[in-house]
Amino acid sequence: DSGVTQTPKHLITATGQRVTLRCSPRSGDLSVYWYQQSLDQGLQFLIQYYNGEERAKGNILERFSAQQFPDLHSELNLSSLELGDSALYFCASSVPTGVRGVETQYFGPGTRLLVL
Amino acid sequence: AQSVTQPDIHITVSEGASLELRCNYSYGATPYLFWYVQSPGQGLQLLLKYFSGDTLVQGIKGFEAEFKRSQSSFNLRKPSVHWSDAAEYFCAVGARAGGTSYGKLTFGQGTILTVHP
Fold first, then answer.
1. Could you tell me the maximum CA-CA distance found in chain A, to the nearest angstrom?
2. Where residue B101 falls among pLDDT bands split at 50, 70, 90?
3. Which of A24, A68, A70, B114 would you label with B56, given CA atoms 20 to 30 Å apart?
4. Chain A interface, mutation test: which of B2, B46, B51, B101, most A Cβ atoms within 10 Å?
């Protein structure tokens, strides 16, 4: 158990709908990252938040948005869902190392989204 | 931009045999390298990481990896595989940003390990 929690574990919805995925980071971690894992694209970085602010952006669609709240939990909002959005969505968190560099990310169990 | 290649999509070994999973990376600066393991239906578990220093790093579950800058490789090894090691293994490289500390990870496509009894 990494200490990162994600809810829900599974989500089934229809095309055109909107869903919200939730992530609680490990205690003390300030950064939250979102990744998408699909069969055709593999594991892709979506977005990173650090202490409530967006820090880095990857291959995130305009239909997707995220935020990090004052208690440091994060939500990933997916709207106007398409069949191709079906994937496993991971959240990861990390603690600042105090030096300029890459932090070790610890992953949650993921949310499996199925769009029908 | 950084990239990671795992040349082997699927590897099969017998229980007790040695294992080496290959990983090649492309990155213009000093790489930060990771190996993660994903069991079916599970999240990603960190096996080990390389940031600097000793090029041979030890991880959990008896795994080790060796960073070879000249070959742009970070291969994962285990001397004796157990049936419980059957899973998918991902190599990743972290991007370092000047002046800030963040860690977008770029993953390889993964190598599925099957262990025969």
1. 45
2. very low
3. B114
4. B101
Work out the burial of residue B5: count CB atoms within 10 Å of its CB; fewer than 13 is exposed, 13-18 middle, 19 or more buried.
Answer: middle
Nearest Cα residue in chain A from B94: A102
Please give the C-alpha separations between residue A91 and each of A35, A49, A75, A108, B66, in angstroms, as whole numbers: 6, 11, 9, 6, 28
The per-residue pLDDT for range B26-37, each reduced to its tens digit, is 987 778 899 999
Q: Which residues of B touch A58 (CB under 8 A)?
A: 104
Interface test with A, best of B105, B111, B112 (most A CBs within 10 A): B105
Q: Report the C-alpha gap between A100 and A108 in whole angstroms.
A: 24
Looking at residue A97, its pLDDT comes to 65
pLDDT digits (tens, 9 = 90+) for B32-76: 899 999 998 788 999 999 988 889 999 999 999 999 999 999 999
User: What is the SS3 assignment for B85?
Assistant: helix
Put simply, whether B98 touches A (Cβ < 8 Å) is: yes
Least Cα separation, residue B59 to chain A (angstroms): 14
* Paired strand residues for A106: A93
